[in-house]
Design a protein that fits this description.
homodimer; 342 residues; alpha/beta; 434 Repressor (Amino-terminal Domain); Rossmann fold; 3 domains; 6-stranded parallel sheet; DNA-binding; transcription cis-regulatory region binding (chains A, B); Lambda_DNA-bd_dom_sf (chains A, B)
Chain lengths: 342, 342
DNA sequence: CTGAAAGCGCTTACAG
DNA sequence: CTGAAAGCGCTTACAG
């Protein structure tokens, strides 16, 4: 024998003995994998309760060849979108008795992405969720072996067979259209200078303009994180003729642009309307209160888990995988007071 | 036999066979638990590499009676403090080959806290971290059995044998002192109407005032989340004689107070200085740029894991637990332009 | 509906 | 330094 046993926590055998049945029967009871005689059911239930028995996930995992858990590979761990999505995933997973492992993919070169994926997979999770908010998610997808249930969260269309994405492009279109409806003849767009996917708010801006037969100008790009440059861009816009409406790709950008506009002597929203995107906590307190668009990351997380769970169940039952699907989670405009009719 | 084997992933036996040694030898190699002849080491290393072998954490956990993982019980999953701390924990855990499980404790009644703790413990994690930013953390602590390595994160002094907390009280003292140093004779304090622990910024405010021999007034409380009430409180303060400096317990509160002050016709910082706490993303963009105080949650998370890991190692080696300890993580003032000399 | 047996992939006391 | 054996706590094919 390896070491002394001295159970501190009850194991299935203890339950079986107390209920006067065999361990497999307890197992079947627990997993609903066979019918159990009513009297035995009762005795088992009572024994579990009396002992405070909780099955060992490790033992179960060893037997099942996989854990009742899912791992999320998160490309931008410090962002609100990530933590809100995580929370949604966790809530949905918990209902199914699944545990959540988080492994972050930030700040990593490609080699390290692979190492982290291997590490996350070492527990043999039943499935994985990859957040494709950043490039690291894309890399992770490449090294995750086939056959393990996967859903891609937050990418563009076509990045995976199973995806849940937010209606970002639609949101951008909506916001732009809103400005157009207010009578503005043109809406300018300021964005960070980084690649955006197909499903981007920026493309939504283009969609709206095209829909109205307006020639789409170049968007104004600002080096990532350089708020001062965004202020400068705002100032420049403020001096330019014919600028009456601006859709900023993020609230931060909107605020910086407003600052620049003021430096150029323009008033918001009287002279120029400015709206943002993301609905950050401070928007309502801003002067003027900033109109924005909110995305429902918590909902995304929940749906992503459910989509993953369907695959997991199909795999466990040995039936066909559900058909490929992409779910789109709607967001919602938050109208405040930073825009006005033209 | 239970089911057909058909190894998709290599197991220790495969490595052993390829390296022409026994499985226990591979195990000892992997865990450094015995000396291995040099030639065998080489063969084993080569075999592992060739096969792309990764030990099964589940099997290991079953044998070791515990998993190489830690679980965090997070009382306020949606807050920045939580996700930043998580990230720090995860980074430190990863270096030790430990996985992180997150179980959130929000929105739960007491009964559900207990169920979640049981669930989190079902994997037999090597240790647990409980975030005591909210009451749920306190409850969780009550139901976590003795003997499992635990560290309390973000509570007050004395909430556990092992704690890491931020220098919040000291931060509050520092901020208040800063205002006093600028020549203000009194500093008022606005806070949310919720219980704050011993280690609170509010107590730091009291500390500073007392230190300077100033009678400590009642702090001004605002119902949680009611920003409009905070604006009203600011307005009231603006009309009151002799108010020259306000330390708001959070940046949101500071901004709302400033709004109220302006409604009362006062200028910030010319007439009245206002500073916040937490250093939120928008502070620098505010008008005026808001002076605040930043806490290092990422660092807290890292230290918390390391403190936990020491206990885990002690327990595994069977040596004495490290002495009880509380580590304090320093924050840092972020001086901007919302305060001025009196 | 139910039990005895074997197996999941590791680790460790035991005996060289 | 190293191997054969037994055990960790479950699950499942097999045979009633």
């Amino acid at each position: 024998m390896a070491r002394t046993t001295g159970h501190s926590r009850p194991v299935i055998k203890d339950v079986a003995k107390l209920a006067d049945v065999s361990a497999p029967t307890v197992s079947r009871y627990l997993n609903g994998t066979a019918k159990i005689a009513e009297d035995k059911r009762k005795r088992i239930a009572a024994a579990i309760k009396e002992l405070g028995y909780e099955p060992s996930m490790a033992a179960r995992a060893l037997s099942n060849q996989e854990m009742d858990s899912v791992v999320v590979f998160a490309s931008k761990p410090d962002e609100f979108s990530t933590s809100a999505t995580n929370h949604g995933v966790e809530a949905a997973a918990r209902k199914r008795g699944f545990l959540l492992n988080i492994v972050s993919l930030d700040e990593s070169d490609i080699a390290s992405v692979e190492a982290r994926v291997r590490m996350g997979l070492a527990v043999r999770p039943a499935g994985v969720l990859v957040y494709e908010y950043g490039w690291a998610g894309v890399e992770a997808l490449k090294v995750i072996p086939q056959g393990i249930p996967t859903v891609v969260v937050g990418g563009g269309f076509g990045d995976g067979d199973y995806q849940v994405i937010n209606a970002e492009r639609e949101g951008g279109r909506w916001m732009t259209m809103h400005l157009l409806d207010l009578g503005h003849k043109m809406v300018f767009h300021v964005q960070w200078d980084q690649e955006t996917g197909d499903n981007s708010r920026t493309n939504g801006w283009r969609d709206a303009l095209k829909e109205q037969g307006i020639d789409v100008p170049e968007s104004i790009t600002v080096p990532v994180g350089r708020l001062d440059k965004a202020v400068a861009a705002g100032k420049k816009l403020g001096r330019r003729k014919g600028v009456t409406a601006i859709f900023a790709a993020t609230d931060e950008l909107a605020i910086a642009v407003i600052k620049g506009l003021r430096e150029a002597g323009r008033k918001v929203p009287q002279d120029i309307s400015v709206i943002g995107f993301d609905d950050m906590a401070f928007d309502a307190l801003w002067e003027p209160p900033l109109t924005s668009y909110t995305q429902n990351f918590h909902e995304m997380g929940q749906r992503a888990f459910r989509m993953l769970f369907e695959q997991i169940q199909a795999k466990r039952k040995g039936v066909d995988m559900p058909p490929a699907q992409v779910e789109i989670v709607q967001g919602r405009p938050c109208l405040r007071a930073s825009e006005a009719a033209c």
